[in-house]
Amino acid sequence: MSYQLILGNKAYSSWSLRGYLLFEAFGIPYDQQIVPLYTDAFEDFKQRTFPAQQVPTLVVTNDDQIFTIWDSLSIAEYLSEQHPEIDIWPADSAARAAARSLCAEMHASFMSLRKTMPMNLRRLYSTFQPDEDTKSDIARVCALWAWAKNQWGQGGPYLFGTHFSAADAFYAPVAARFKTYDISVDTLSQQYVDNLLAHPAIEAFYEDGAKEPWVMAHNELDID
């Protein structure tokens, strides 16, 4: 079995970071392809990998069968089924259910945070001021982190302890946004942000993003 993971621009694509971490943080071998967002190459990708319309997209080759999986949550579940020894999800059933709930909420919520704080790993905005809806999203994220850490994660740097899980992969782009926009959070949340962004796979993603030639104007804010 072999995997090809198709990602968007690393500097800007939050969902690509999630898919990338599902491989890199767990040591799963794969090939990687970058397709810059909102370009002719991205339109070609959508036609070539239909019905996938977004990144990350995973192309799986298994003997003579080739099939496509799109959406980070679907990729996480598939990899968990194929590699149960890796513990992409927490081993404890209650913690595993909690991690899936956290990922599902991340997947479907926090629209103000996404809209007003677009991912940009190449910038630091020290004067950004979140609006009330974005503040509410930030508070909710921090509350979820505190709940998971207090329930299951007190013994390690991640949400569920010493072992990096899919939940950490899903919240890594939020941690990156908190850094980019210089968001002030409570001590526990800041420690988690620092620990998460210090993960070698995330550091490597930042380095790759810094080298990319593409610029997405709508992800570049006109503030310091």
Q: Work out the helix count.
A: 9
Instruction: Identify low-pLDDT runs.
Output: none
**Physical arrangement of strands within the biggest beta sheet:** 2-1-3-4
Query: What is the CATH first-level class name of the largest domain?
Result: Mainly Alpha
Query: Total domains, how many?
Result: 2
DSSP strand (E) fraction? 5-15%
The CATH level-2 architecture of the largest domain is identified as: Up-down Bundle
Give the number of DSSP strands.
4
Structural class: alpha+beta
Our Rg estimate from Cα atoms comes to 17 Å
Largest sheet report? 4 strands, mixed
CATH topology-level fold name of the largest domain: Glutathione S-transferase Yfyf (Class Pi), Chain A, domain 2
H/E element string?
Answer: EHEHEEHHHHHHH
**Helicity, in percent?**
40-55%
**Mean of residue pLDDT?**
97
How far is the first residue's CA from the last residue's CA?
A: 47 Å
Shape: globular
